[in-house]
Design a protein that fits this description.
Shape of chain B: globular
Structural class of chain B: mainly beta
Low-confidence stretches of chain A: none
Number of helices of chain B: 2
Strand order of the largest sheet of chain A: 14-15-16-13-9-12-11-10-17
Largest sheet of chain B: 5 strands, mixed
Largest sheet of chain A: 9 strands, mixed
Distance between the termini of chain A: 31 Å
Shape of chain A: globular
Order of helices and strands of chain A: EHEEEEHEEEEHEEEEHEEEEHH
Oligomer: heterodimer
Low-confidence stretches of chain B: 96-115
CATH architecture of chain B: Roll
CATH class of chain B: Alpha Beta
Structural class of chain A: alpha/beta
Helix content of chain B: 10-25%
CATH class of the largest domain in chain A: Alpha Beta
CATH superfamily of the largest domain in chain A: 2,3-Dihydroxybiphenyl 1,2-Dioxygenase, domain 1
CATH superfamily of chain B: Beta-grasp domain
Order of helices and strands of chain B: EEHEEHEEE
CATH topology of the largest domain in chain A: 2,3-Dihydroxybiphenyl 1,2-Dioxygenase, domain 1
Strand content of chain B: 25-35%
Largest interface: A-B, 32 and 23 residues
Strand content of chain A: 25-35%
Chain lengths: 308, 115
């Protein structure tokens, strides 16, 4: 957690069924800043507060889902060191050349045991936030879209949860923050892991199919902002899964909703700080409903079965 | 004011009136009706898959992970992506009956490589 190795989630490449519709939606409804297209036609976005060139990349595809999720690491030396440790652990890595993603340096890509592609990179052009670095004013939200603070985390669904947890904690320096146990009291249904002092930088749920996306999450500043986001969603007829409500796990206030291709997104606020000396919090199978949705106190069908 | 059409779910014989500007799934949800499983409502997750037995509809792009081109041609579609242009009779395929008209070409092995 000393903020040296893996720093934070940096980018997510999301597959969309209609790129023009999606570019408009991520701009107007999500309130992300459009950063341009590359030669493959992929569309790039960042939030107003993010300083690096891009965090969300949309790719036109015939199916929804997430291509990969990337973490920024401290520097090139750290990147090389983590790649070596991954190889020694038995994970094959691939180097994606600098510039393959716009304004992004060389990436180390690998598949984790849940079937997902994860990337590490050290460089992405610092274009600055909306207010810059020099004696900045507050950034007053003066646009109609949701306008989150940052790409915050993802929840992924896949097969070998234990293998993925082992890799994230033993090789990449993540810490286990919370977990949910299945009926047997032994097997993990889900885990929430952090590489920082956040309540989670990735969450993983055990699932019959590999490589599935449950949601990509964006941070908001307050519960008031979560309610504002819900108003924007209804005004724009956005498909809402559940919320506004609160998670028992991580304590975050939340809305789950879907982008125009059916990829679940989350806008959330709050959550507590976690430090590596803290014991993980454990939820029993009987209490999982309260853990996931603290006010409803029950799981909905969609939480465990609707993924892309 | 839009035109209404009647949508009938074959399994339950339940029917509801659906505005032609709403998807078949939206129309069901708006009246608090049940029968078709509700997922993302955006053509991505596949749980609202139905087989249209009678009637015509307009459709939008839907995920090939759940609906193959052959299925789409045979009227096996996601109900969140079709809007009625006549009365419709349909059979529910999604959720528990997910494999009923799923063809081998729509397995995860055909997932396109990320670039």
């Amino acid at each position: 957690m000393a903020m040296t190795g893996v720093l934070r989630p940096g980018h997510a490449q999301i597959r969309v069924l209609d790129i023009e519709e999606s570019v408009k939606w991520y701009t107007d409804v999500m309130g992300l800043k459009y950063q341009g297209r590359d030669s493959q036609g992929r569309a790039y976005f960042k939030t107003r507060a993010e300083r690096d060139h891009n965090s969300i990349i949309l790719r036109q595809s015939d199916r929804a889902g997430m291509d990969f999720f990337g973490y920024k690491v401290l520097d090139k030396v750290t990147l090389a060191s983590l790649e070596k440790q991954l190889n020694e652990y038995g994970v094959k890595t691939e180097r994606i050349p600098a510039g393959e993603l716009l304004e992004t340096g060389e990436r180390v890509r690998f598949q984790i045991p849940t079937g997902h592609m994860i990337e590490l990179y050290a460089d992405k052009t610092a274009v600055g936030s909306a207010v810059g670095n020099s004696s900045p004013d507050m950034d007053i939200i003066d646009q109609p879209g949701i306008t989150p603070i940052r790409l915050d985390h993802a929840l992924i669904y896949g097969t070998d949860l234990d293998g993925a947890t082992d890799l994230f904690t033993k090789v990449l320096g993540f810490t286990l923050v919370e977990r949910v146990k299945l009926e047997d009291g032994q097997t993990d249904l889900g885990v929430w892991l952090t590489c920082s002092a956040k309540a989670h930088d990735i969450a993983i749920v055990r699932h019959g199919e590999p490589g599935k996306l449950h949601h990509v999450s964006f941070q908001l500043g307050s519960w008031e902002q979560v309610l504002r986001a819900a108003d924007i969603m209804s005004k724009n007829r956005v498909s809402i899964d559940i919320g506004p409500t609160r998670h028992g796990i991580t304590n975050g206030t939340t809305i789950y909703f879907f982008d125009p291709s059916g990829n679940r997104l989350e806008t959330f606020a709050g959550g507590y700080d976690h430090y590596p000396d803290m014991e993980p919090i454990t939820w029993s199978w009987e209490e999982v409903g309260r853990g996931i949705f603290y006010h409803d106190r029950k799981l909905n069908d969609a939480f465990l079965s609707v993924v892309t | 004011m839009g035109q209404y059409y009647t949508v009938t779910i074959a399994e339950t014989q339940e029917s509801y009136r659906c505005l032609d500007e709403r998807s078949v799934l939206q129309g069901m949800e708006a009246l608090g009706k049940k029968g078709i499983p509700v997922g993302c409502r955006q053509g991505g997750c596949g749980v609202c898959k139905v087989h249209v037995l009678e009637g015509s509809y307009d459709k939008r792009v839907m995920s090939r992970a759940h609906i193959s081109a052959e299925e789409e041609a045979e009227g096996c579609v996601l109900s969140c992506r079709i809007k009625p242009t006549s009365d419709l009779r349909l059979s529910v395929v999604g959720s528990m009956k997910k494999t009923v008209c799923r063809s081998p070409s729509t397995t995860d092995a055909s997932l396109s490589q990320p670039t």
